Recover the amino acids of this structure.
């Protein structure tokens, strides 16, 4: 994956709170915990959000989070100015990904699409959906309509999950989370009953659709124009797509249960879909480039 060297980057869709130690507060339900199906603290986070007592301010061990810290984008804005910066820096590449993804959905949905920010945090963060840590993985919080990511997740994806990784895999992660934002804006998320699991549950359908939406962006990424009329992304290769499918295969519920948790596969507890399903729906979005082909709620055949 390469970015156009001379393209301009806009850091205004990022809130960098990595030096502040916290952000916001309140209650809600995080969507796509771990973004792509990462297990771990998200289970505890959702327990706090849905079943915990008090104000829902966070997990044990998060009492030290400083509330309501302002984002500081000054260093990010200085470092990430052009596509050349995105080609040399992961964090600048993520800025470019966010720009491209949001430009795409603005083009598709027009006035229906409302741009939103991605919050860069380090270690731990407080959101309107409750407290989270880097172990949660990337997620979208409908309560504040923000995407959250600790960029160290990309290392986790390769080191713990064994994914091949790469800049396009990083972009897939963000495109999936912005897929949840689109679902929120279109009212799709409201079709899902929280707490219901299983291979055909609303939660699984929501996640597979977000994968499909990510695929539709990938189909158009090389042609989506920015404000200057030039696409930010110059090239997505067959190897990039193969790496994304590799990542999708490693973050399915069945792979996680069998290889990371070390237990038997329990389809009744699925919340994100199997590895095969996730690969199938990303591929559906990528090959068609049509969000209308991503109706996981209107089919009995999820793969």
């Amino acid at each position: 994956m390469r970015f156009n060297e001379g393209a301009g980057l806009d850091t205004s869709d990022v809130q960098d709170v990595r030096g502040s130690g916290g952000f916001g507060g309140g209650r809600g339900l995080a969507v796509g915990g771990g973004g792509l199906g990462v297990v771990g603290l998200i289970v505890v986070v959702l327990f706090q959000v849905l079943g915990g007592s008090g104000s829902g301010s966070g997990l044990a061990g998060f009492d030290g989070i400083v509330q309501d810290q302002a984002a500081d984008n000054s260093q990010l804005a200085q470092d990430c100015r052009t596509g050349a910066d995105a080609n040399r820096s992961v964090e600048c590449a993520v800025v470019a990904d966010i720009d491209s993804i949001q430009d795409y959905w603005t083009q598709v949905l027009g006035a229906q699409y409302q741009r939103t920010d991605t919050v860069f945090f380090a270690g731990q963060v407080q959101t309107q959906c409750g407290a989270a840590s880097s172990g949660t993985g990337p997620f979208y919080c409908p309560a504040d309509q923000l995407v959250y990511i600790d960029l160290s997740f990309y290392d986790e994806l390769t080191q713990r999950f064994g994914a091949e990784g790469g800049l396009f895999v990083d972009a897939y992660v963000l495109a999936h989370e912005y897929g949840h934002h689109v679902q929120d804006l279109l009212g799709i998320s409201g079709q899902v009953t929280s707490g219901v699991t299983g291979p055909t549950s609303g939660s699984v359908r929501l996640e597979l659709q977000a994968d499909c939406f990510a695929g539709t962006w990938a189909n158009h990424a090389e042609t989506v124009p920015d404000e200057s009329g030039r696409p930010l992304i110059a090239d997505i290769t067959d190897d990039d797509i193969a790496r994304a499918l590799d990542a999708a295969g490693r973050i399915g519920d069945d792979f996680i249960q069998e290889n990371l948790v070390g237990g038997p596969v329990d389809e009744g507890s699925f919340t994100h879909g199997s590895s095969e399903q996730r690969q199938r729906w990303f591929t559906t979005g990528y090959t068609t480039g049509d969000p209308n082909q991503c109706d996981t709620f209107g089919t009995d055949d999820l793969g």
Remarks:
- The beta strands are 2-3, 14-16, 118-120, 124-127, 130-133, 139-141, 146-149, 233-235.
- The first helix runs from residue 34 to 37.
- Residues 102 and 115 are 6 Å apart (CA to CA).
